[in-house]
Predict the 3D structure of the following.
Amino acid sequence: MTPEERLAAFRTFLERAPDDPFARYSLAMGHRSAGHPGEAVAEFEELARRRPDYVPTYLMWGQTLEAMGRFEEAAGVYDRGAEAARSAGNDHALSELRQARDGLRRLKGL
């Protein structure tokens, strides 16, 4: 299956289940994998707007922003994600998000 075929499948999945956070997350990750970071960020943003409690969003969103050189935005996303993970009691995700945030602090002074 080509990246474009995967994206088409993810879009179909999202059309059938527009409120399913995993459907939108899958589409965002598909864009990320296909080398469409702007589209991935737009889907992560929409997912966070619709389901701010969907913790997996934040690490991948932040990493995508970092790859685009948008470090300040990535720091804010990691902070939002850490709060969502803390609220959900997801210690593993909280640790990952803190590590990502600390990395930006060390490397970029943010």
Observations:
- The radius of gyration is 14 Å.
- Helices lie at 3-16, 21-33, 37-50, 56-67, 71-88, 91-108.
- The chain has a mean pLDDT of 96.
- The longest helix spans residues 71-88.
